[in-house]
Design brief:
Layout (H helix, E strand, L loop, with lengths): L20 H6 L3 H23 L5 H31 L10 H31 L4 E3 L2 E3 L8 H36 L18
Antiparallel strand pairs: 1-2
Helix pairs in contact: 2-3, 2-5, 3-4, 4-5
Length: 203
């Protein structure tokens, strides 16, 4: 969902031990790939839950809300760790980008990371501000502050919804750009984030 590999960071020598030189030059490292697709799936699933949990009756509605809150806590840990990995351990392709391409891609990456961080904070502010606990697999995490005025809670709720739509819109644009690279420009941009294919041998 989010572009990777454009924030500055070191290139660990240990990454070359499990891949060939060609793979090292053309693919992201496995932790980056796993966290990319995991966070993409969780964010899209979060959006679907938030937009549809009012449809089913209460038992299912409650399970959807708990799932949304639980995934929110997971993303609270996953996103900062993913950013730390990108800055310190992940593989980078900065030198392969033209200056203008690098500018727009870094801008997109920074915007998405920033919006996701804001969305997470707004989720806590909305829930805790309404005097409700965050449920993490049924474990209740209570608010560290007193309930906020109704107008403030409604403001956080509205911003949370708008930010979610903005994230999904930018993510769709990012996915479309990746498909253009794959099928129109026919370069290796999308392939960098795909799992390594196991070569087949002839019988």
């Amino acid at each position: 969902m989010m572009p990777e590999g454009l924030l500055p960071g070191p290139e660990p020598a240990s990454q070359t031990m499990s891949t060939t030189p060609q793979e090292h030059a053309t693919r992201y490292d496995n932790p980056t790939i796993i966290m990319h697709w995991l966070s993409a799936f969780l964010i899209v699933f979060q959006f679907v839950l938030g937009e549809t949990w009012h449809w089913p009756p209460r038992p299912v509605h409650h399970l959807m809300v708990v799932a949304h809150l639980t995934i929110g806590v997971i993303l609270t840990v996953l996103i900062p760790f993913r950013l730390w990995w990108r800055l310190t351990q992940g593989r980078h392709f900065t030198a392969q980008l033209a200056p203008l391409d690098r500018f727009f891609t870094v801008a997109m990456e920074s915007t998405l990371y920033g919006l996701i961080g804001v969305e997470i904070v707004l989720g806590y502010a909305w829930r805790w501000g309404a005097g409700q606990a965050i449920s993490f697999f049924g474990l209740l995490i209570h608010a560290p502050f007193a309930p906020l005025p109704h107008e403030t809670v409604l403001f956080f709720k509205t911003l949370h919804s708008w930010t979610a739509w903005l994230i999904i819109g930018l993510a769709c644009g990012h996915a479309l750009a990746a498909l253009v690279h794959q099928h129109v420009l026919k370069d290796s941009v999308l392939a960098r984030m795909l799992p390594r294919r196991t070569p087949t041998t002839a019988p």
